[in-house]
Predict the 3D structure of the following.
Amino acid sequence: MSKTLIRSLLCFFVASVLIILVVSKAAASQAYIELDVKKSGHIGGQLRVSVTELQGVLNLDTDRNNQVSWKELYPHRADIEAYLITACSFSVNDLAAIPRVGEIAYGLQGDIPQVAAAVTLNGQPPILDITIDCSLSDFNLAKNPRRVNIHWPSGGSHQALLNAPLPRENFEESSAHQDNFFDFIISGVWHIWIGYDHILFLIALLIPVVLQRSASGREPVKGFGKTLLRVAVIVSAFTIAHSITLSLAVVGIVQLPPKLVESVIAASVALAALNNLRPSVAGAQGVWIALLFGLLHGFGFANVFHDVDAGDNFLSALVGFNIGVELGQFAIVAIFVPLAYLLRRTRFYRLGVVYGGSSLVALCACVWLVQRVNS
């Protein structure tokens, strides 16, 4: 094996690990404040915070295994509730408002274990403004920013990030942003770009498309048109599958536990990658994997769709979000496939990408699977 190939593989490995760590860290460090304002003055919503943050404040890992389970969280419900309602203060129409905490649930946001608490606030109608102040708490806002999403009765919304430079903000209904179809498309693009498990699943399926079967195993495909046809088959299968289950899930016809969905998605990434290690796999042979597991990926997209502030524009939001997912997917394909086609005859691609890259993807997916099953 040449020194150039070894250096290329090493760079590929380091870059992939760094990307995964950066994305995971970014997702792990964020909490959410979601409020839905009604004309009656009632404000319902949800406070979500990562278990990592709670562990740092409340020291919940009683068995010292570096994992906090629901069994360990439950006895500390009162402490968790107190932390959630004191981490940030709220004012409604310039009057202090203390959130009342309802049901508390434990689940996953992507790979990140979180605690979500239903909250209610009350104010005198009409609600004209809400102020959220996170500067009074002693927790590290630089490491634990708060993402705010407020939906107003008029259909407008506010999205903001409260962090160290901006710990306090006043939100007025008169300045609320009115979401349009284009905003929902952008949201779909963004969600697939930060969904690294979906990205790696798609890339694993696309790695063999620039190869074709031969008597000795597989060889570079002849002709870019044939490659594009194979890409179209795989991407279409994945798109059709996840569009069906995304629609069924968001309208409530079919619901699956998020933990099960995220675990199977991790398993699908590993299977797609390991399939590339078989010497006879080439072309669009992964189409059945794309079709079958694409159904599960649709439920994964549905889980993040619930973070989209659709308001009264549910159908528009669903269509726009799905279009955004497809556009984000197309961008990934447009970058990866031409590069793969240009490199298909090189030893780096045939060994480094097909075997080394697929093995790395499978390893990452197995780590995610263990984390998600044990969360």
The chain is about 50% helix and 20% strand.
